[in-house]
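<purpose> Linking amino acid order to shape
<body> The protein record starts here
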Amino acid sequence: MRLSDFREAADETFGEVYAPTLLRELALTNLDSLTPAQALERGVAPRDVWHALCDQMDVPDEDRRGRDKRRVIPPRR
């Protein structure tokens, strides 16, 4: 998953207003309480951050692609 795909999926899944707040503020328990933005800055793969964010926000697997149902979200590692 590219960073641009991550950002698009976040905007589509959580909304263009709420997504930036989540990326800056939400501490992800699966990633040592880093925020998504911190995790990405530290080199965590976007797909791992995406799955951690979706897990924490209880986003069902079928909704993790955002509006583009053709978008490929790589599976968890």
